[in-house]
Amino acid sequence: MKTKIWICGFLALAISSICMLRGEETTPGGIVYGPKAGFNITAPEGWVVDNESGKGQDLPCVLYPKGSSWSDAKTVMYAKVASPQWEGVNAFVATAIKEMKAKHGSPKEKIASGKTKDGHDYFINEYPATKTYSQWERVGYIQLPQAVAYIVLTSRDRASYQKDSGALEKVLKTLVYVEPKSETASGQQYAHRYRQLLDQHAEGQIEPLLTEWREKAPDDPDAWITSANYYFNQRQTNISPKKPGAGDITLTDKKGKLAGSISFEQVEGSRKHAADLLQEATTKFPDHLDIWCGLAFMYQESGDFDNELSTLKKMVAYAREHPAQLKWLKGEPLGEPADKFVPDKLHEYGSYYEKKENAEDDKRWYQIATLATEQYPNDPQGFKDAAGYWADIGEWQKARESFEKAHQLDPKSVAAVIALGQVSVEMKDFLSARKYYEEALKMEPDGHYAQTAKEALRKLKKK
Predict the structure, then answer these.
(1) Percent above pLDDT 90 for the chain
(2) At 7, is the secondary structure helix, strand, or coil?
(3) Which of 121, 409, 412, 433 has its CA 20 to 30 Å from the CA of residue 260?
(4) What is the DSSP letter of 370?
């Protein structure tokens, strides 16, 4: 059972960015900060930038037409910086396409390209609606120094998309790169030199610099984070007679016939080296949850669930013992209580497996949900995830119990009430189903879930 709102799959590749509005409400612009880079953008005429409405979906910078809102606009945009392991736009896009293919289909690649206001390259891919995904979307990707930025435009229907899609490129043309908000003082010069070497493609000098950085600035978490990201993203060129895959370059002969492809494959041993560095960093900087999460992500990408789960358990154990001193990106405070922040992160890792929609990965999803419910029994999200798992395998009584617990913890969650209605229908408990759907309508007379509740009640009249 899927009761959540789906937004373009690029969220799976991103972590928290920060959006700061510039000037008063009449100045339609904002700055988006990521851990390694930032950018400022200006809304096109007739649009506004909003740094509040999307926060609940980890979207700190959203745009929509004037006179509408984030929740009701037929076309919206959101802007983010990709998570720090993504430093090259081509690798980021190839992975995004691969992960979204089942739901979004194959995109129309590079339907437009150009340069931002300060000269950085961008291109746009288009993701038309499919049988399994009703949104019409296009995404602008921007290569920044040591980082990837992207802006997603998404429309509820084709007519809105045709009317509004040109707004994306207008925003891209206003974009200006902004240096990261802060860097560890002791490693500032190393970070600057590292970026220079990347821009110069001076690979032979990068590894010695990273080694020196860790030796000379042992109290700088960025020395380990940057090193790990560098090794994790190491690729080697491979020329093959095989057909090109996503992100590969097509080779043709003199007659234009397919002759093979050029792919960019992970350097052998580089992922392990990256994980080893972050494992070391968790012992040196255990209060940095971004390092724990980065290590868990690397294990996830490597298909090593056992080590991923072990890492998440160790992170949770430390967070439970030291809730007041935890940090996130660039050593900043979490921004919300640990007993809310950590369960939300566990939900993100569990969602990765839930989206795969197979029995083995569903079990992994449930294991992460169980970790959340056991360690954070006062947070509803783990119970919602556990309930979703039980519903997916037809264990309706267990699903009901978990959704009821989530509802007790978060009485304002319309999604949980709708889910309880759906579970009650599956259990043929139509009296309870009506009660839950009526409750949902009282909580949300209009909006996303109202239509679901009304339709369900119409069907229940026939029971």
Answers:
(1) 58
(2) coil
(3) 121
(4) H
CB atoms within 10 A of CB 300: 19
* Tally of CB atoms within 10 A around 369: 27
Output the six-digit token pair for 406: 């989530």
Q: Which residue is listed with tokens 């899609």? A: 165
Comparing C-alpha atoms, which of 328, 278, 305, 327 is closest to residue 15? 328
Q: Rounded to whole angstroms, how far apart are CA atoms 429 and 421? A: 9
Q: State the Cα–Cα distance between residues 165 and 161, nearest whole angstrom.
A: 5
Strands 47-50 and 62-65: antiparallel
* pLDDT tens, residue by residue, 244-275: 766 666 767 677 777 666 654 555 678 899 99
pLDDT the model gives residue 268: 67
CA proximity to 315, closest of 340, 330, 295: 295
Token pair in block for residue 240: 């093959």
Would strands 235-240 and 258-266 be described as parallel, antiparallel, or unpaired? Answer: antiparallel
CA-to-CA dists, residue 108 to 105, 133, 138, 222, 303, angstroms: 10, 16, 9, 37, 29
Instruction: Report H helices in 80-144.
Output: 89-104
pLDDT bucket at 34, cuts 50 / 70 / 90: confident
User: Pairing state of beta strands 258-266 and 249-252?
Assistant: antiparallel
| Dist. CA 164–CA 158, nearest whole Å | 10
**Cα–Cα distance, 454 to 445 (Å, whole number):** 10
Helix (H) or strand (E) holding 168: helix 167-172
* DSSP track, 137-156: EEEEEEEETTEEEEEEEEES
pTM of the predicted protein model: 0.58
Distance CA 148, CA 83 (A): 8
Cα–Cα dist 13/48, whole Å: 25
Gap between the Cα atoms of 85 and 232, Å rounded: 7
Stated as kind and residue range, the H or E segment containing 301 is: helix 289-301
State how far the Cα of 238 lies from the Cα of 10, in Å rounded to an integer.
Answer: 27
Report the run of H or E that residue 352 belongs to, with start and end.
helix 338-354
Distance between start and end Cα atoms, the chain:
21
Cα angle 26, 27, 30 (rounded to 5 degrees) comes to 135
Residue entry with tokens 């430093």: 87
